[in-house]
Structure formats: structure tokens, C-alpha cells
Design goal:
Uridine Diphospho-n-acetylenolpyruvylglucosamine Reductase, domain 2, Cytochrome p450, 4 domains, two-stranded antiparallel sheet, disordered N terminus
Length: 528
């Protein structure tokens, strides 16, 4: 007689569970309740089986499975999730895991673990949504690009994109659009109406990125009901749905609203395709006169065309070009809009000079970063920031003059405000999901192959072990003497961080290394 193995037990339990699920609707409620109990027992046995068959080092990783599952039923902010469920485990161990049958997920929050993940892209490649289900809405919208690719494909995209980011940006675009927004706000004030600040800055950011990335005017500031604006907003709602991110196969059966999301993505993609085609034709007859004032699309097309030369390697096709333009656009939009709303709110509450408010708002806008000014130090922070602004503006000036690219480099205190804000409120709370390509040792722990793994930037940036007892306080001075900035452009650099020369990997608002965020990293670097 053949022996019974654990795999036979698993197969049997799976078959029994499926049969019970199919029959639940055909039995009385009392019998159904009993069947549910059997299903629950089967799940527990399956879970324990997979736990037992994992390496001992995996079982050492602190588990928060129950809390993680419970958390799915509540719409809580990231901070509420962290404070209510995961903070004690992160503070004590710097690592935690959750499991659902064969789905294992790990998040880490120490500089040492972060260093290991970011410095070993072969061991921890990115999880590519298009690979999971190429027919999903997310895959259709994002496709393969610099952010969502690995290996040789990523290297090719990075090689082509690099030249487009190594130049100055035209600050006048941001200044002109900022003034347009203030004009629209003034019109509402004159009519005695209330303005939704977040709505305004969302429209402002949409226009600014449209001009910077595509040299295309969405017209959102002047016309919030335009077709382009509504299409983009609907896409963002659909593509960020957590339900479809967790279960991408649901896109195979789209309901009415989801079906409309697919139509909107196709419409938006067609817009970008037309922009690329139009720009290619323009560049066939006209060279880029001033690269510092050129849009990102033109620079990317030029770089890709340079790759087509006989001595060069494979270039970027139009679909890949579109995918990259979309991801660059999205990388700077919502986070920037939220940041600007916070800037206007906090500076208005603390009643700084109106001209200084406009100028600091502008500086924050071109960086796409967040101010988070609170606690009893706020008035002093605002006073010092105001004084620094006046070093670039004449004290008796009555006009807002757009600063040049070079002038934005001479704001050390505002720079520290931005750094501290990004520590407390990182624009991206967690590293885009990676997946272990093999069993990997991390300290006393083992991360099994195919485990999803991420860095919790929020937990890392609030760690008292890393930042001290005042980790939750807003204190820009902690970054005085900061040594990271001079080396940010070098992905292989390993500089120190401010007071006490903290580990480089203790502050990761843009990730770090060769896969750090190209757009945000560049914008931050040129402010320094």
C-alpha cells in the first residue's frame, strides 16, 4: 500500500473545502454553520502545514497575520495602522510577517535590513504587476517601464532615461502656473466664495507636470471640468483600488464602473501616443534648441533616437516610451498635490508674510515635497524660513519673482524643513513590493523564495532606535551638517546622515541606490 504524504493530506483538504463551499447554499443554516466550522478547521490545518514546512529561520520572524487580516476590514490611515497594529513589533524587532496559506509577506524597518534589500536587486527583484496579470487595468495603464521592470530591460530603460534627468529644469513654468492659480483664488475671494485648496493644487500640479513632462496644457487650473482632467481623475481612482491590486484576476470580469476605467485608460493612452507621434515629427525637422527648457518627452525621444545609431544598443519603442511618460507623470502628481495643500494650510495658520507664503509655496511646489510644520516650534520655524526667503527676495519687494535654478540651491533651512518633513511624512510610505528570488538570510531570519518583501519607510523614519526619543517630533535642526546631499547623484555612494552620522539607510524618502526614484531624487538634489 502506498504511503500517505503531507501533500496527499493537503490535496484532500483542498478538495473537501471546495466541495463544502459548493454545497453550502443547498443545506439548512445549521448545517451550513457546521460546514463553515469544517472549512475553518481545514484552513488552520493547511496554514500549519505550510508553516511547518518553512525553514526554522522563517518561523523566527515575528508574525502579525491576525492583525494584518483584521486590518483589511477597516479604512484606516497609514499612521493609524502603524500605531494601532504594528508599531510595537517594528520597534522591538524591525521586521514582521503575515501569511495567508502560501502568500507570505514581510516588511522591515531597520537600516541594516533596508541596506540588504536595496543593495541586492538580484536577490530581491521588483514585483511586476504586468507579469502577474498582463490583462489587468494596472498592467494596461503602467505596462513595462523604468519603475516596473527588472534585469536587462530595466538597465536599458535606465540607460536611455538617465540623460533626460541630468540637467537643470525650467523654473519659470512653475512660477507662471503658480500665479495663474492665485489669480483663480482671488476671483473666488472677490465673489465671497470658499476655495477648496486641495482641489486647486491638484489641478495646478496636473498642469505643471503636463507642461514639464509632455509640454501639454491640460488646462486644469482654468477649466477643472475639462475632459482630460476628468479622465485622469477617474483612472487614478480605478488604478489605485486595493481590491484589484490584491486580486488582479478580478479584472477578467469587470463590472460597469471598472469597464469605464478600462475605457478611460485607453483614452488617456491614445492621448499620450498622439503626443509622442507629434513630438517625433517635430524633432525630425527641428533640433532641441535649449535642453534646460525642453520637456521630458523631447529629451527622452532624443535619448532613444541616439540609441538607434549603429554603434548603440537597442532603443525604446513607442509603447515603452508611453509607459515611461505615464509613470514619470504619476510619480510626481498626487504626492505633490497633497504636499502643496499642507504647505498652504500651515503657512496660512501661522500667518507669514503673503509674499513669503507665495515664495515658499513655489519652492515646495518645484520640489514636489511636503512641509509638516507643527508643535510649539512652529512659529520659530516659520520665522527662520521667512528670514531665509528674504535673503533671495528684496525685503521691500512687492512682486513675486520666479527664482532661477541656481537661486533655489541657496536655501539650507528650507532644505532641512523638507528633509524633516519627508522623514515624518514620506511621500511613498513603503518600498514598491519586491519578491525573494531565492532563500535569503537576513540576520537570524530566513526569507523563503517567492516571499513578498518591502521596507516600511514610515516605521523606519519613526524608529526611536534610529532617531532618538524625539523621533515623532518635527525638528529640522536634526539635519544640520547633513552629508547625504552632495552624493545623492551617485547611487553607489554611502554617505552619513546629519547628527551623529546616522546610517545612510535610516532616511529613505526616495529609496536609495541604483533603483532610487529618478524624478524625485533629481528634484531634491537640485534644491541643495
Amino acid at each position: 500500500m502506498s504511503s500517505i504524504t503531507p501533500s496527499h493530506i493537503v490535496d484532500t483538504l483542498t478538495d473537501v473545502s471546495s466541495a463544502l463551499l459548493a454545497s453550502l447554499r443547498r443545506v439548512p443554516s445549521s448545517a451550513a454553520l457546521s460546514s463553515v466550522g469544517v472549512l475553518a478547521a481545514a484552513y488552520v490545518i493547511l496554514f500549519q502545514y505550510f508553516e511547518i514546512n518553512q525553514p526554522a529561520g522563517w518561523r523566527k520572524v515575528p508574525s502579525v497575520t491576525g492583525k494584518a487580516i483584521w486590518n483589511l476590514f477597516f479604512k484606516k490611515t497609514l499612521e493609524e495602522q502603524y500605531q494601532g497594529f504594528f508599531k510595537p513589533t517594528h520597534e522591538e524587532h524591525g521586521i514582521l510577517r503575515s501569511s495567508l496559506i502560501r502568500f507570505n509577506r514581510v516588511e522591515v524597518s531597520t537600516p541594516e535590513f533596508a541596506r540588504q534589500i536595496l543593495s541586492q536587486p538580484d536577490a530581491f527583484p521588483k514585483l511586476i504587476m504586468a507579469d502577474r496579470d498582463p490583462t489587468s487595468l494596472t498592467a494596461l495603464f503602467f505596462g513595462t517601464n523604468l519603475v516596473f521592470s527588472n534585469g536587462d530591460v530595466w538597465k536599458r530603460h535606465r540607460r536611455i532615461a538617465n540623460p533626460a534627468f541630468h540637467r537643470a529644469w525650467n523654473t519659470q513654468v512653475f512660477g507662471d502656473l503658480s500665479l495663474d492659480m492665485f489669480e483663480e483664488l482671488d476671483k473666488l475671494v472677490e465673489k465671497g466664495k470658499t476655495a477648496d485648496v486641495h482641489d486647486f493644487v491638484q489641478r495646478l500640479t496636473l498642469d505643471a507636470l503636463g507642461k514639464t513632462v509632455f509640454d501639454f496644457n491640460f488646462g486644469a487650473i482654468k477649466n477643472p471640468e475639462s475632459d482630460y482632467v476628468k479622465t485622469y481623475n477617474e483612472i487614478m481612482k480605478g488604478s489605485t483600488s486595493s481590491l484589484y491590486i490584491i486580486f488582479p484576476w478580478l479584472d477578467k470580469f469587470p463590472l460597469t464602473r471598472r469597464y469605464n476605467s478600462f475605457k478611460n485608460v485607453k483614452h488617456f493612452n491614445a492621448l499620450i501616443d498622439n503626443l509622442i507621434d507629434k513630438r517625433r515629427k517635430e524633432l525630425d525637422t527641428n533640433e532641441i534648441a535649449d535642453e534646460d527648457h525642453a520637456d521630458l518627452l523631447s529629451l527622452m525621444i532624443k535619448a532613444s533616437d541616439d540609441e538607434k545609431k549603429p554603434s548603440a544598443r537597442k532603443s525604446m519603442n513607442d509603447v515603452e516610451m508611453r509607459n515611461n511618460m505615464v509613470i514619470f507623470f504619476l510619480a510626481g502628481h498626487d504626492t505633490t498635490a497633497n504636499a502643496l495643500a499642507c504647505v498652504i494650510y500651515y503657512l496660512a495658520v501661522h500667518q507669514v508674510n503673503h509674499l513669503a507664503l507665495c515664495f515658499i509655496f513655489f519652492i515646495s511646489f518645484i520640489q514636489g515635497l511636503r512641509f509638516h510644520i507643527f508643535t510649539s516650534q512652529s512659529q520659530d520655524v516659520q520665522r527662520k524660513a521667512h528670514a531665509e526667503v528674504l535673503t533671495l527676495l528684496s525685503a521691500d519687494s512687492t512682486a513675486l519673482v520666479t527664482p532661477t535654478f541656481d537661486e533655489t540651491k541657496h536655501l539650507p533651512y528650507l532644505t532641512n524643513i523638507i528633509k524633516e518633513t519627508l522623514r515624518l511624512r514620506p511621500s511613498v510610505a513603503q518600498l514598491p513590493m519586491r519578491i525573494a528570488s531565492r532563500d535569503v538570510a537576513m540576520g537570524p531570519y530566513i526569507i523563503p523564495q517567492n516571499t513578498f518583501i518591502t521596507i516600511n519607510f514610515f516605521a523606519l523614519h519613526h524608529s526611536r532606535k534610529v532617531w532618538g526619543d524625539d523621533a515623532d517630533e518635527f525638528r529640522p535642526e536634526r539635519f544640520e551638517g547633513h552629508q547625504v546631499d552632495e552624493k545623492l547623484a551617485d547611487p553607489d555612494a554611502d554617505p552619513a546622515v546629519g547628527e551623529g552620522k546616522r546610517d545612510t539607510y535610516s532616511w529613505l524618502p526616495f529609496s536609495f541606490g541604483s533603483r532610487s526614484c529618478k524624478l524625485d531624487l533629481f528634484r531634491f538634489h537640485y534644491l541643495i
